[in-house]
Amino acid sequence: MNEDSAHFPPVDPVKTGIKGCCPRCGQGKLFDGLLGLKPRCASCGLDYAFADSGDGPAVFVILIVGFIIIGMVLWLQVNYGPPIWVHILLFGPLTIILSLMTLRWFKGILIAMQYRHSAREGRLSD
Prior knowledge:
By secondary structure, the chain is an all-alpha fold. It has three helices and no strands.
């Protein structure tokens, strides 16, 4: 069995996930590109094969970004009543930008929380 003798201080899953860093050491990068995961951490060597965030990040993004955008659309319509093309011009790009930005954050947070939970239960073999 491959025993890990290195000791890493605990990292905050939210801060680590938002920064897109390794959930074990907090130094190496988690993402390869916008949403793809690297195979392993360049700093501590943690294999990211355990990471499977599934559809969790997308659900959070749909609920949170959808709430924000629809609230803004309703506020703008009630207060100013612009034509539909103004809504499309404003909220189309804003929805895409917010969705991509928060999807990366939530994916990082959920992977960091998954690592923390798995490490506590001893299910990770490095």
